[in-house]
């Protein structure tokens, strides 16, 4: 099956799942695909935002429901969790809106927020708003990245492969650099 057919068949569903698991790289790649006309840009935004929102909502609910379990306590001992909790205590609403834009906070932040006194309804609303803003920013960044590098690539397939490879290398370097801190 050609890559175009795979994208046409599973594109938005793959963006939904990928944004929940990986996040930025998937949303940016979705923006590149939208630029090339393989996916509708607002469909990619909605899929990425919904996938990210769903994943974060799941972490929040699991942590709140299983707060006495070992896996939650293990996460609570991580330095990133402790940083999130300190910031969270001072700026609960702002942090809940912005955590997905802070590197290293996306997985631990919903767990930290679940330990606060925020109501579940409030988290659902703030999480949805934050996810939509994040989706718009990441997908349009990919869209404009696709436009900027288009003259350099002769075919769609090589352009996507290079974009994914560059994104993966940059994401790995970013993670490695911040993991050492």
Give a verbal description of the structure.
By secondary structure, the protein is mostly helical. The chain has one domain (3-173). Helices cover 79% and strands 0% of the residues. The chain has 9 helices and no strands. It has helices at 3-21, 24-35, 41-65, 70-76, 79-90, 92-98, 108-114, 120-149, 156-179. It is globular. The N and C termini lie far apart (44 Å). The model has no long low-confidence stretch (mean pLDDT 80).
Summed up:
With 181 residues, the protein is mainly α. Helices cover 79% and strands 0% of the residues. It has one domain.
Q: Which short descriptors sum up this protein?
A:
181 residues
Layout of helices and strands:
Blueprint: H1 3-21, H2 24-35, H3 41-65, H4 70-76, H5 79-90, H6 92-98, H7 108-114, H8 120-149, H9 156-179
Give the count of helical stretches: 9
Number of domains: 1
What is the count of β-strands? 0
What is the helix content?
over 70%
Q: Mind describing the biggest β-sheet?
A: none
Which radius of gyration do the C-alpha atoms yield?
18 Å
Estimate the global geometry from the Cα principal axes: globular
Structural class: mainly alpha
Order of helices and strands: HHHHHHHHH
Separation of the first and last Cα atoms: 44 Å
Mean of pLDDT? 80
The residue ranges in which pLDDT falls below 50 over 5 or more consecutive positions are none
Strand content: under 5%
């Amino acid at each position: 099956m050609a890559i175009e057919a795979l994208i046409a068949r599973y594109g938005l569903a793959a963006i939904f799942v990928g944004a929940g698991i990986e996040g930025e790289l998937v949303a940016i790649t979705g923006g590149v695909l939208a630029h090339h006309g393989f996916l509708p840009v607002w469909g990619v935004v909605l899929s990425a935002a919904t996938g990210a929102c769903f994943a974060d909502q799941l972490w929040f609910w699991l942590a709140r429901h299983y707060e006495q379990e070992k896996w939650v306590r293990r996460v609570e001992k991580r330095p990133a969790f402790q940083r999130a909790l300190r910031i969270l205590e001072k700026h609960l609403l702002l942090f809940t809106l912005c955590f997905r834009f802070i590197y290293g906070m996306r997985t631990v932040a919903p767990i930290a927020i679940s330990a606060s006194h925020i109501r579940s309804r409030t988290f659902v609303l703030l999480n949805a708003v934050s996810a939509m803003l994040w989706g718009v920013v990441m997908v349009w960044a990919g869209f404009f990245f696709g436009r900027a590098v288009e003259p350099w690539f002769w075919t769609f397939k090589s352009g996507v492969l290079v974009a994914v490879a560059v994104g993966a290398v940059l994401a790995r370097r970013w993670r490695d650099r911040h993991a050492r801190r």
